[in-house]
Each structure stands twice: as C-alpha cells, then as structure tokens.
From TrEMBL:
The gene is cobA. It comes from the Bacteria. GO terms for molecular function: uroporphyrin-III C-methyltransferase activity. InterPro entries: 4pyrrol_Mease, 4pyrrol_Methylase_sf, 4pyrrole_Mease_sub1, 4pyrrole_Mease_sub2, CobA/CysG_C, Siro_Cobalamin_biosynth. This is uroporphyrinogen-III C-methyltransferase. CDD domains: SUMT.
Length: 364
C-alpha cells in the first residue's frame, strides 16, 4: 500500500516472520520511520540478517504487555500472525488509537522468481498497471538506461536497485553476467524484476533472459511493455499504419547492416518501415533502398529521445535524409520511420509536447 504519508520520526511496529515481512520492513525503513519488528514468540533467525536497521523488542506474553508496546508506537503493520494474536493487536490498537495496517506478505518460497518488465519508452504514464505492480512487489530491480527510472524509488520502495547498463567502470554489464546475477538473486529466494525499455521481446534480449531462467529452474514471467517502435513515431505525430496509406509496418534492427536482399523484400512489401538502433547504418540503408528502387521522394523521419524533454524530429526524403541527419548530428536512441505515413505528422513534436505537458499536470 502506498498512501504517500510521511513516516519520518514515526514509530512503526511490524508483525510477521522476517522473510514474509522483509518488504514491509524495508518500505517503512525507506520512508524514514523508526521500525520495530516482532517475528513471533519462538526462536527466529535474527531479523538483522534480512533487513538491517530494525529493532526487535521482546515478544509480549500478555494482553498488558501488548498494550504497553502498542501504546508506544504510532502504527502497527500486521503482515502475518495467528488469529488470536491478531485479535489482541486489533483490540489494543483501538484502545490506544494506534493506526493498524494489514499488509501483504512477501513470497517465502525457497526459490524466488524473475519478472521481465517492459517499461515502455520512458514516460511514466506509459508504464502498465502490471509493470507497477511487479515493481512494487520486487526485492531487487535490475535496470538499464533505456527503461524508465525517474521514480524507481517510489515504484519499488525498499527494493535494491542494480544498474546493469553500466558497471562502476562505465562499461555495460555483459548480457550473460546480467542473466547470471538475476538467476542468482532468484535462487536466493528473492523476487526479481528485470526492468527493460519498451517491450522485453522487441530487440530487448528478453527471450535470452527467459531461457536463462528456465535453464536454472527459476519461475519467470513477462509483462509486455509499450514498444518504442510504435510509441516514439506516435509521439512525433506519425501513425505507423493509416487507412489507404499503409496497411502494414515492419520493425527492423539497424544494429547490423541490412542486406540487399532484405532491402528488396522491404521495398516489395510496400508498407511502413520502422528501424530501431538504426543511426549507425542510416546512410547505408537510405542509399541501398534508393539504389534498389524505392522512390527517392519517400518521406523519412528520425525521432531522437522520444518522450524526453528534448525530443527532436528530423524530417526529410530518402535522398536527403542522410545529409540532413549528418547536418543535425542525430544520435541514438532514435527511431527511423520510412514511408508515406510520415507525411501525416502535421504537427511533428507538438504531439509529444502536449503529452508531456498533460503528464506533468497529472503528476503535479
Ligand atoms: N525493447 C525496446 C527496444 C530496444 S532496442 C522497445 O521495445 O522499445 C533499443 C532501441 O530502441 C534504440 O536504439 C532506439 O532505436 C529505440 N528506442 C528505445 N527507446 C527510445 C526512445 N525513448 N526514443 C527513441 N528511440 C528509442
């Protein structure tokens, strides 16, 4: 539960086993509260092993002892307990006008899980409800620069955040190492989220991560995201399909040069071409398409940094886009759109500006 209350200086008593309560403990600690933890009457693993920073009072053995404890705190968060203890706590809370919050237990299975979360193209409003729920339940989030990270602290309160886009030496963590880290965390019983930009299965190496989890026996699920292949053109006012203009679109990676035979096929299809990771090979692609028979006045758009405050679109034609891009100094991340739908972008980046203004109002 996130109610946006300020807990700094408040005393919070969390009731429940250390593993089941670990996220609730972490969340209240993060929110600035002084946190006390009652795991149960028996001998338990010291909570400090799970979440450092909390105090464990003596477990109350009588109604009077519960009364004294509950009178001394501002809020009791019950994660799990017996029905009898629950009733004693509820009665004491109502006597002392102490807030009572019933909280959801974290998974205590010996093997955790991995959820690949598509974070969309960067705008908070384009995160799905499923993405936010998965982040909220995470013990650890592995993220990179393409995923939305502005408010990760709020979306995944109390979770550990690990940047696998960059290591301390500023080099990207190799894909296999990132997979090993995720699997190791899950095998240690943690609820892992891998937050990715756009959709995990659109050039996101999500398929490889699913296979790595399956090979290690780790339960894995995928939450689809809004892909930049559609949303970034839209943010510049370009629909990837439009009645009577284009009834198909092809999404390709420009990471490696596209062969002549692939280009010939794309021209033959006749629909919209959307290129991701295409800045490095743009000149080669535009020249190849023109050489192999595409109309040289075919409209082309390059949209850089979609949904960021400095989103920029460069519009041209097949025969001019190379020079325009070089002149403008376009850089990654950018989406290239080739096709007649580009002419429909009457308002260009104004569409994105409107969306960002609206989003800012909603978040204010
Ligand atoms: N899985 C992602 C794509 C990963 S490949 C998705 O579905 O969107 C990375 C490429 O995506 C970048 O090189 C760029 O071409 C594109 N991209 C992702 N986010 C973008 C953004 N906000 N603005 C422009 N291009 C973006």
């Amino acid at each position: 539960m996130s109610v946006g209350l300020d807990f700094s200086g408040k005393r919070v008593l969390v009731v429940g086993g250390a593993h089941a309560a670990r996220r609730v403990l972490a969340r209240y600690l993060t929110s600035g509260a002084t946190v006390y933890h009652l795991a149960g009457p028996g001998p338990h693993s010291p909570v400090s092993l799970v979440v450092p920073g909390v105090t464990a009072p003596v477990f109350p053995r009588s109604v009077g002892a519960w009364d004294a404890l509950i009178a001394a705190v501002d809020l009791v968060a019950v994660v799990e307990t017996t029905p009898h203890t629950d009733a004693v706590i509820a009665a004491a809370c109502s006597r002392h006008r102490t807030w009572l919050s019933r909280e959801i237990a974290a998974s205590t299975s010996p093997v955790g899980s991995v959820t690949l979360v598509g974070g969309g193209p960067g705008l908070e409003r384009l995160l799905t409800v499923g993405a936010l729920a998965a982040l909220n339940a995470a013990d650890i989030v592995y993220y990179d620069r393409l995923g939305p990270t502005d408010r990760l602290e709020e979306w995944a309160p109390g979770a550990e955040h690990v940047d696998v886009g960059k290591a301390p030496g500023h080099h990207a963590v190799p894909q296999r190492d990132a997979e090993r880290m995720m699997v190791a965390s899950a095998l240690a019983g943690r609820t892992v989220v891998r937050l990715k930009g756009g959709d995990p299965f659109v050039f996101g190496r999500g398929g490889e991560e699913v296979l790595a989890c399956r090979a290690a026996g780790v339960p894995v699920t995928v939450i689809s995201g809004v892909t930049s292949a559609i949303a970034v053109p839209a943010a510049a006012g370009i629909p990837v399909t439009h009645r009577e203009v284009s009834h198909l679109f092809t999404v390709i990676s420009g990471h490696a040069p596209i062969t002549d035979s692939e280009l010939t096929h794309l021209i033959g299809l006749g629909g919209t071409i959307v290129v991701l990771m295409g800045i490095g090979t743009l000149q080669q692609m535009a020249a190849g398409l023109a050489r192999l028979g595409m109309r040289i006045d075919m409209p082309v758009a390059i949209i850089e940094r979609g949904f960021a405050h400095d989103q920029r679109s460069t519009f041209g034609r097949l025969d001019t886009i190379g020079a325009l891009a070089a002149h403008a100094g376009v850089r990654s991340p950018a989406v290239v759109v080739i096709g007649d739908v580009v002419s429909l972008a009457a308002h260009g980046d104004e569409a994105a500006a409107d969306l960002l203004r609206e989003a800012a109002t909603l978040q204010a």
